[in-house]
Amino acid sequence: MSMRRNLSLWFLLSTAVVASLIVTVSIFYAFIIHQTIRQTRNNEEHLILAIGQQVASEPRVKKALLADEPSTSIQNYSLKISRLYHLDFVVLMDMSSIRLTHPDQSEIGKRFIGGDEKKALRGKIALSVSHGTLGKSLRGFIPVYYHKKQIGVIALGIKVTSLSNLVAQSRQQYIAALVISSLFGLLIALNLAFYLKKQLHDLEPQEIARLLEERDAMLEQSKDAIAIIDSNQRILLANIEAKKIYSREGYDVSTLVGQQIDVLIAHKEQINFNKKREQFYQQNGQDYLFSATPIIVRGNQTGYAVFLRNATEALFVADQLANTTAYASALQSQSHEFMNKLHIIYGLADLKAYDELKIYLQDIIRPEKEFAHKLALLVRNPVIASFFIGEREKFTEKKTQLKIEFLTEIPANESKKETTAFIELCRYLDHYLLQSELPDEFNLVLQFQDRDLIAVYSLTHTSALLNILENALGSFYFKQLLKENHASISLDQRHSILEINLKSPYGKDEHHECADS
């Protein structure tokens, strides 16, 4: 099936090119033959008239016409002229159209046949095609004068069959040239068909159409903004989501194609097109995950496929997945730990070591009870409370105990944006902490002060951890996140202890915001 499809396209391309070549060459050939026939006839006409005028000026011709009698010498002269210039006849006639010479001696003394000599008898040079004793011929008539008095006419001619032979000789030459050019054109057509076939990656037209439709369907149904750009960063193709971003800037979506990528990505300095990993990018208050894939055609890079993904949604899904994974692992770990504790409790009870059992139970219950009690008493924002419960579980899974202290009550906040901003900042920090080597335990102190929510991380640090945090906090995304939410962060090293101080606006009312402005 594949071979038949390949041959069909090969045949289509070859046939189209060869047919075009044959039609073009045939038209050119017909035009050349037509021109050749006209040119041959014109040449013969000029030759006949030139020879006739030369013969008419010969004294022996004038003498023969004055004598008005046939003679052997003038007959031989006319035959000689015929042979010399490849004419079929040279006939001298008097003013009564009586032949004095003729290739057929039996016609000498008879009237000239055809009637087309009358114009010449009136003193005018004439050309015609007419029937005579030798058949149809091209004739030329030249008047002969003696002392300005016309004494006769010279008729010279070439038979049409002889003229056709001359044309046939020219035609044979053109046919040979036509065959050679057709073969050469066929070779070019086959090579061109092969080249086009390779350029199309051996695909059939219907396969190319299907691939284009599939590509368009994938682009249009994708929730990511996708744009194809060339080497000059000019947009060649964009899907619906990319056009939505463009329209939010106040432009007409029909003008997107052909624009520079700057109309979609206003801050190109934030990103690196050659970086293979996804990069955080922020524009007009919206967070994106940016990625670019180079487009390689026959070993040469011709542009990029640019992807912009909603970072908020992506991070939310990733966080949900991470929480789910952490929760499942925590359940497994807690189940194992619970069984160990249960065995210890059973053993102490079996040994009737009730005092030790009481102490052991207090050690187990007190930390969790104290944390739950403080959380319920001091944190009035359930979103923040649930967030830190989840974060604490994540660090527990990493075999690190996160001790959370509340210096003040954390009030409820009607501003969802401020709550979300604080959680995003903490989640960003926790993400990089979880990827580092951590001590067995570290502290997190939370307090609400002067309409700011303050989080202070205290932990024993290493140079590797410090480098990771400095890179994370120095990223453009995090700096932009701090700037947009009017938050601040600082690192403070005290011997081997590292403190991370995060301050974010929390609980500002309308009056306070106006006063700040």
TrEMBL record:
Membrane topology classification: Multi-pass membrane protein
Pfam family, one: sCache_3_2
Subcellular location, record wording: Cell membrane
Domain SpoOB alpha-helical residue range list: 326-366
Any GO CC annotation of this UniProt entry: plasma membrane
Organism: Liquorilactobacillus aquaticus DSM 21051
Record keywords: ATP-binding, Cell membrane, Kinase, Membrane, Nucleotide-binding, Phosphoprotein, Transferase, Transmembrane, Transmembrane helix, Two-component regulatory system
Membrane-traversing stretches: 7-32, 174-196
NCBIfam families: sensory_box
Origin superkingdom: Bacteria
Name of this chain's protein: Two component sensor transduction histidine kinase
GO molecular function: ATP binding; phosphorelay sensor kinase activity
Main subcellular location of this protein, as a coarse class: membrane
InterPro entries listed in its UniProt record: PAS, PAS-like_dom_sf, sCache_3, Sensor-like_sf, Sig_transdc_His_kin_SpoOB, SPOB_a
Gene3D superfamilies: 1.10.287.130, PAS domain
Stretches assigned to the Single cache domain: 38-171
